[in-house]
Design brief:
- InterPro entries: Phage_head_completion_GpL.
- With about 160 residues, the chain is mostly helical.
- The chain has 5 helices and 2 strands; from the N terminus they run E-E-H-H-H-H-H.
- It has a two-stranded antiparallel sheet with strand order 1-2.
- The radius of gyration is 17 Å and the shape is globular.
C-alpha cells in the first residue's frame, strides 16, 4: 500500500469540476486516456485540467453565449443531428473534453522533464516543446471542430 498521492492511486470518479455549461472531467480517465506517467501528483493533474478548462472556456465564450441566448443550460443540450451521436455520447462534449485534455497534457509535458534526473531531464527538455506544441495544436483542432471552423498551422522555415 502506498501513502503517496501519485496519479496511479486515482480512483475512477475523481471529478474536476467545471462551470454549469461545460462538462466536468474525470481525473483518472484523463490520466488513463492520455497515458500520463504515475509520477504526476493528483493536485498537479487537477491544476492542469483546470487551466485547460479556463483556456477552452475563454476560447469558446462566444459559442457559449450564443447557445445560452438560445436557452441551452449546458453543452450537452446543444442540438446535433441524430447521426452524430455516438451512442449516448454527445460529439460536442467529446470534442470539448479532447480540447481540455490535450491542452492540459501540453502543459504537463514541460513539468515532467523537471521531475526526472538531470541527464534525462536535459534530453526531455529538448523534445518537450515540440511535443507540447503537438498537443496544443490538437486542442485548437478540437475547438475548431466544435465550432465548424478550420485551423491553419503555419511554421517559420
Amino acid at each position: 500500500m502506498s501513502f503517496t498521492a501519485f496519479a496511479d492511486d486515482l480512483p475512477k470518479g475523481t471529478m474536476v469540476e467545471n462551470n454549469a455549461f461545460w462538462p466536468d472531467i474525470d481525473l483518472a480517465e484523463f490520466q488513463e486516456a492520455y497515458r500520463l506517467p504515475g509520477e504526476y501528483r493528483e493536485a498537479l493533474l487537477a491544476d492542469r485540467l483546470r487551466l485547460g478548462m479556463l483556456w477552452a472556456n475563454k476560447e469558446l465564450a462566444g459559442f457559449r453565449a450564443r447557445h445560452a441566448e438560445a436557452g441551452r443550460a449546458s453543452l450537452a443540450e446543444v442540438p446535433v443531428d441524430d447521426g452524430e451521436m455516438l451512442g449516448d455520447l454527445h460529439p460536442l462534449v467529446l470534442q470539448y473534453v479532447r480540447a481540455v485534455c490535450c491542452h492540459a497534457k501540453g502543459l504537463l509535458l514541460s513539468d515532467y522533464a523537471t521531475m526526472l534526473r538531470k541527464n534525462d531531464a536535459q534530453s526531455d527538455a529538448k523534445e518537450a516543446p515540440e511535443t507540447a506544441d503537438r498537443w496544443f495544436r490538437e486542442a485548437l483542432s478540437a475547438l475548431a471542430d466544435m465550432q465548424g471552423t478550420m485551423t491553419i498551422h503555419v511554421e517559420a522555415l
